[in-house]
TrEMBL record:
PROSITE patterns: HTH_LYSR. GO terms for molecular function: DNA-binding transcription factor activity; transcription cis-regulatory region binding. The lineage of its organism: Bacteria, Pseudomonadati, Bacteroidota, Sphingobacteriia, Sphingobacteriales. Residues 1-58 form the HTH lysR-type domain. CDD domains: PBP2_CysL_like. It comes from the Bacteria. SUPFAM superfamilies: Periplasmic binding protein-like II, Winged helix' DNA-binding domain. InterPro entries: LysR_HTH_N, LysR_subst-bd, WH-like_DNA-bd_sf, WH_DNA-bd_sf. This is DNA-binding transcriptional regulator, LysR family. Keywords: DNA-binding, Transcription, Transcription regulation. Gene3D superfamilies: 3.40.190.290, Winged helix-like DNA-binding domain superfamily/Winged helix DNA-binding domain. It comes from Pedobacter hartonius. Belongs to the LysR transcriptional regulatory family.
Length: 298
């Protein structure tokens, strides 16, 4: 339904590459250039700055991208609402999930949803909580699931399920046989943690204050970008880590990782669905209803 030139512009703007856009759209690079030129002529504005092999959006390009995102969201809603009139549920739903959720929680939900609504195409992106919130604000996704709650007034948060973050070590760690540690013992042991922007770090920093500590008090040996890399690192080092309990069920069963309680420290949090303030679109509503019913949530 949308103007194909806008689809070309949107693809170039998101990939910042004429070559990648051409490959993604299955058209030639000269065709991409022609469509962008026609839009620039139509709006009497340059949409991209070209510096060697790199391109960036101009101010006019940023404005057009914002309107294009909104327009495509409207088109998706039109498709859904019109199909609903003839009892069809089809279209494309773009979802974002923060790393722990994407790796350990959401796959069964997506599979169950696809079985029931096979005509709805699902596209999933993942990143840390900060990145998923940014994707929502940029309208790259219609719905997100994140590990924590920021104070952004443009985002609406709906509780999903509870999570617990636990202290974990490898089976050969000196603490592996212990059931509980005094919080002060955390200061003298090396840690591996997630990167900045992670929802886990935000919750951990807040929880440590309850036992008179800060995240900066931990002896950080290394920061890694995924829970899987942290688990592997634990198995080959004497580090400790705080990890979501959802992420370590297999390792606990096999005995390769161990959980240790920390006296007075209980780190729990909610996973949240997020969408922009205001009414969610039709496909997002269908997905939310399906998930809530699957988990017996209201």
């Amino acid at each position: 339904m949308s103007d194909f030139r806008l689809e070309v512009f949107h693809t170039v703007a998101r990939r910042l590459s004429f070559t990648k856009a051409a490959a993604s759209l299955y058209i030639t690079q000269p065709a991409v250039t022609k469509h962008i030129y026609e839009l620039e002529q139509q709006y009497d504005n340059k949409l991209f700055e070209r510096k060697g092999n790199k391109i960036t959006l101009t101010k006019a390009g940023e404005v057009l991208l914002s309107h294009t995102e909104s327009l495509f969201a409207i088109y998706r809603n039109i498709d859904f609402d019109m199909n609903a009139l003839v009892h069809k549920k089809e279209g494309t739903l773009r979802i974002g999930a923060s790393t722990t959720i994407a790796q350990y929680v959401i796959a069964p939900l997506l599979a169950g949803f696809h079985q029931k609504f096979s005509a709805i195409q699902l596209h999933l992106i993942n990143g840390n909580t900060e990145q998923i919130e940014r994707a929502l604000l940029d309208k790259e996704i219609a719905l997100g699931i994140v590990e924590g709650r920021s104070r952004n007034q443009e985002i609406s948060y709906t509780e999903f399920i509870m999570d617990e973050i636990v202290l974990v070590c490898g089976k050969n760690h000196p603490f592996a046989g212990r059931t509980e540690l005094d919080p002060e013992m955390l200061r003298s042991n090396p840690f591996v943690i997630r990167e900045q922007g992670s929802g886990t770090l935000q919750v951990l920093d807040y929880a440590l204050k309850g036992v008179g500590m800060r995240l900066s008090d931990l002896n950080i040996e290394i920061q890694l970008g995924s829970t899987e890399s942290i688990k592997s690192y634990l198995m080959h080092s004497n580090c400790l880590a705080f990890i979501s309990v959802h992420a370590i069920s297999n390792e606990l069963h096999s005995g390769t990782l161990r959980v240790i309680d920390v006296a007075g420290l209980n780190i729990s949090r909610n996973f949240y669905f997020i969408h922009l303030q205001g009414k969610t679109d039709g496909l997002s509503e269908v997905f939310l209803r399906h998930v809530m019913l699957s988990h017996n949530l209201k």
